[in-house]
Each structure stands twice: as C-alpha cells, then as structure tokens.
TrEMBL record:
The entry's keywords: Cell membrane, Membrane, Transmembrane, Transmembrane helix
TM region(s), chain numbering: 20-42, 48-71, 83-102, 108-127, 134-153, 159-178, 190-212, 227-247, 259-278, 284-302
Protein name: DMT family transporter
Annotated source species: Amycolatopsis melonis
Topology in the lipid bilayer: Multi-pass membrane protein
Length: 323
C-alpha cells in the first residue's frame, strides 16, 4: 500500500525509476547475449568445469558484500533450497558451457530461451496448472523454431544444439520448481538462496574439475590478462550484477515486466555472434530465432498477467546468471 501511495504521490519520480529499471534490465540482456561468444573464447583456454568454478568464485565476493545484511539471517531452510536449486543451476550452466563449444553462439542464445516456453508445459504436467490457450500456441511455435534452428545445417542436429536443449529443459524445470516453492511455506530471502546456489555451483564445478579434468593448475597459471578479464566480466557483471539488477527491477516494475525485457537476450546473442564471432545467419536460422523470441515474449506476457502474487519476503522468479 505504501508503494502504491508513493506512485500516486510522485508519478514522475516513479516513471523515472521505472525507466532506469528497464534500462538496467536491457543492459543485463545485452551482457547475457554476449556471454555465448565469451564462453567460446574462454573455452579455448580452460575446460568446462574449471571455467565454471572460476566464474562463480569471482561472483561470490560481490554477492556477499552487497547482500551481507540478509546473509546474517541465513536459515537452514534457505540453505536446503539453495543447495537444490544450485545443483540444478550447475546442470544448466555445465550444459550451456559445454554446448556452446559445439554450436554457434547465435544458436545457443536462441535455444536456451526455449526454457521459457517450456515452463507452462512443466506446470501443467507437474502441478496441473493451466494457462490461456494462446500460451500453448506460443509453446508450439517456440518448439517449431527450435526445430528450425537445430536443422538449419541439415537433417542431423548438431551435438551442441542438443546439449543446449538439455540445458533449456533443466532450466525450465528449475524455474518451475522455484516459482512453485515461492508460493508455499515461510518467506525466504532470494539473496540468501542465490548466495547458496552460487556456492553450490562453485563447489560442484571445482570438485568435478579436480576429478575429471587434467592439467588445470598449469592452464590457470598460463591464462593471459584478457582471458582473466573475460572470466571476471562473466562473474561480476554476467552473474552478480545481473542478479541484483533483476531483483531491484522486479520490485519496481514487477517480475513479468523484467521477464519480457529479458526475452530480448537471444537477439543480442545473435548480434554479438555476427559482429564478434564472424558467424552468419541463414534464412532458416532467422526464422527459427524469430519464432522462439516471439513465443518467449508472448509466453512471458500471458503468464505474467495470469500469475498470482507470491507470498515471499522478496520477489519470486528465476535468477539465472546468464550464459
């Protein structure tokens, strides 16, 4: 009620904050769009798990400093929730980081967005929640776009496309569970859960690297300054900044508005792929990408209108750290 009164009392100030909020989310979409090219570049120097571990180790100090007030009240329930979602997030990012090495950055950016259009299907199958028929039409359009992208280079899908689709499936499942959990039980701090998630990804990636990857210490020691800069860029801006920007913007404009703006991420991924990686987009890829982006936009818009307010201390939704 106080927030509503503030908007009525000073609508100009609210519009200014809303504009700044929207611009910050556009910046997040731009950063996330660039991560696929960045992962390809860093992939030449580091194996998958070592790269993930370093990326999230870079993000943890920022989360700890920015969220220290909330972290002082960390509960056992938040630790358990963070551990579960962190394990799922590790699966998403491991598949993304590996998959982008075997497909184009543009395809990766488009295909990971399929997770958005899969959420209504997960909610229908798991929780019997139904949306407007247009949402399911959008889902079918998104899957059709996925098929066009996967078959853009012939009738045999690329290995990387299949790995990215696996990441999209896990991500859609993660977001569905997170949204369901945010409406039940005692309120939890999104900052605390996310911090535990990031710690979990760091631990799982570090342990996996130690167990399955060889020569990692030497390769880390041999990293150049530009590679370290890219890793820090992904950790600080692509992970920590993206999280806090989403959290602040969702409080100002609502999570549905944030989600709709973030649906532009694959467009920026395609732009960076063409400008920085020298990739080219054929007519089939463009058609598939447009179908996926359009489906994600419609799905975000329709599900956002139908969603009920969550009983949480903070905003509910996904905190995917991009790329």
């Amino acid at each position: 009620m106080k927030q509503l009164d503030a908007r009525v009392a000073d609508p100009i100030d609210h519009q200014r904050r809303l504009l700044i909020s929207d611009l910050s989310i556009v910046l997040v979409a731009v950063i996330w769009g660039s991560t696929y090219v960045v992962m390809q570049v860093v992939g030449h120097s580091l194996p998958v798990m070592a790269f993930l571990a370093l990326r999230f180790l870079c993000s943890l100090p920022v989360i700890a400093v920015m969220g220290w007030r909330s972290l002082r009240t960390l509960t056992a329930h938040e630790v358990r929730s963070g551990a579960v979602f962190g394990t799922l997030l590790f699966g998403v990012l491991a598949c993304e980081t590996a998959g982008v090495r075997f497909t184009s950055a543009a395809n990766a950016g488009f295909l990971i967005t399929v997770s958005v259009v899969l959420i209504p299907l997960f909610e229908w199958v798991l929780f019997r929640r139904r949306y407007h028929a247009l949402v399911y039409v959008a889902t079918l359009c998104g899957l059709a776009g996925c098929g066009l992208l996967s078959l853009a280079h012939g009738f045999r899908p690329q290995l990387g496309d299949l790995i990215i689709l696996a990441a999209a499936l896990i991500r859609g499942f993660q977001i569905t569970l997170f949204g369901r959990g945010s409406t039940r039980g005692a309120p939890q701090s999104l900052v605390n859960i996310t911090f535990v998630e990031f710690v979990m990804v760091s631990l799982l990636a570090g342990l996996s690297s130690a167990a399955f990857e060889t020569g990692v210490p030497g390769r880390i020691a041999g990293l150049g300054g530009s590679t370290w800069l890219l890793i820090v860029y992904l950790g600080v801006l692509g992970t920590s900044f993206a999280f806090f920007a989403q959290l602040r913007s969702a409080r100002i404009g609502g999570s549905a508005r944030v989600g709709i703006i973030l649906s532009t991420e694959p467009v920026f991924a395609a732009v960076f792929a063409v400008l920085l990686a020298g990739e080219s987009l054929g007519p089939v890829q463009i058609a598939g990408g447009l179908l996926i982006v359009g489906a994600a936009f419609v799905g975000r818009l329709m599900t956002g209108r139908e969603a009920k307010p969550a009983r949480r201390a903070e905003v509910s939704g996904s905190t995917r750290p991009g790329g």
